[in-house]
Structure formats: structure tokens, C-alpha cells
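Ticket #4471: structure output looks truncated?

Reporter: J.K.
Steps to reproduce: submitted the chain below (275 residues) through the standard prediction queue, then opened the result file.
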Amino acid sequence: MRSEDRKPSKRVFPLLQNLDLDSVTFAQIQGVGDPITIEDMNEQEMYDLVLVNLARLVCSGEWSGLLSAGGGDFNAEMPGKSLQAAGAASRHPVGSYAPYGQSDLATFIWYNNDNYDRTLYSPFIAPITGTVTEFGIQITAAAASSCSLLIGIYSDDGDGAPLALQMSGEIDVQNSGTGSIYQTSISADVSTSLTRGTQYWVAMNRDTTSVQFTLKSYALVGTSNVGPGTASSLVADESVVLRGIDKPAALVATEVVTNLNGYQDGKCVLTLKVS
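Returned output as attached by the reporter:
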């Protein structure tokens, strides 16, 4: 815009004069802009308001709002409220939700050797904001001796890998029987809350080495890979989950990406009840 085309600023510059760009706040910008109506006569005021706020952002580095508004964040979202009349009774099958899930089912055997004493991680996008009050799994073959399945929800490290254990629970896979099993005792290792549109990770391990049992899982065919592999084709489906290198017989408080590899099986069904 040529200087001769500019119109005198009636509000923006007079009301914000003598303020430094590194100290002027968004609340002040908002207060000046609030009375301005969107019409031709206020075109110059809107130019001035945008100019001042962009200059403020350059000085303060507060670009997050613009990035979010422009689509810089990835948000794969399911309906944010319980459907129909189910209310708090709704159970969310997070492993089959977009973008990582699929609905075809199979089974996964936690075999009786220590190679299966590793934590398995699979990502999901929280479909709803609220408190997790229940974990649900499906057992198709119970353990023959004492063993508990350890279930955890981890935060994401911001680069697409599990980081910190947020909540956890355990299910006795010897005495619970088969079928749908629910655990309502959820420990808040950090928090039992989920935030809609945020990525988390389901983690599963067992507390006793080399004890065999079988859970309902998602079929390999059609399941998204969640990490790189080493094969030149996807025949092996070698990264449908991330798997820990260590064998802790526990869920660690903090995971590190260098402790993880892709694995070709073990994305077990988990439902979450959120209220």
C-alpha cells in the first residue's frame, strides 16, 4: 500500500501509542480491535490492527495461535460426545479409531517365553475430553498360572513416540475368565484425564515372565504401521506397534525412543470409558 493511499488511523495507533512491541499484550490488541466492525469504512483500522499484532508476534515469538488456526496442528477427531443415549456408558475402541485403527479382529498370544516380556505401544487420538474410568479388554485364553496384564496410557513426546506414563491399571488374566473384562481401578500416575484431539499411547505388558495367555487383537492386514521398518515391502507389517527392547515386567514411568523398535504384531483391543 502506498503511503498516499493510507487513511489516518482513528483507533489503533492512537490507543496503542507509546507502547513497546515486546511488552504490548494480546489483551490490549484485542481491546482495541473489539469495537471495530467488519465493513469498508474500517478497512484501514483492520490493516493497522493486523500489522501491530504481527509485529508483536515477531518480538514475542507467540506464533502458536496462528499455526493452529492455519492447520499447523494435526487433528484427527472422532465425535466429541457420547452418541445416542449411551452417555457415560460409551466405550471407546481407541485402537480402531482413525487415523491408526482398523476394525478387523484377530488374536494375539503372549507366548510363554521371555521374548514376549516387552512393552507394546500403539498410538491413538483422544476422541473426547474427560476422565478415564475404565479399561476394557477381551481375553480369549486365560493364563494357567498367576499373571496380570499391565495397561497404561502414555503421553506423546511431541515427535510421535510414547513418553510419560499418565495412568495405569492391571487385570488378573489367570482368574478373570474369558470374554470382555473391565478394570475400573485406574491409577493416576500423572493424570487420568484425556484431552480431545491429543495423541496418546496405549501400553501393555505382563508382570510375570513367560506366562502365556491370549487377547483379542486387531488383524495385521490393513493395520497402519506406526514406525519405520527394515524390509523393502510391507509384507512383514513389521511396525504395527512399537515394542520396548527391555523386559521390565512393569510399565516404566518414562519411555525413550531409543529403547523402541517396530514390531509386527500385538496391537491388542482396549476400550476406554471416559466421563
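Triage note (M.O.): checked the attachment and the full C-alpha cell line is present. Residues 3-68 form one domain.
Status: closed, working as intended.
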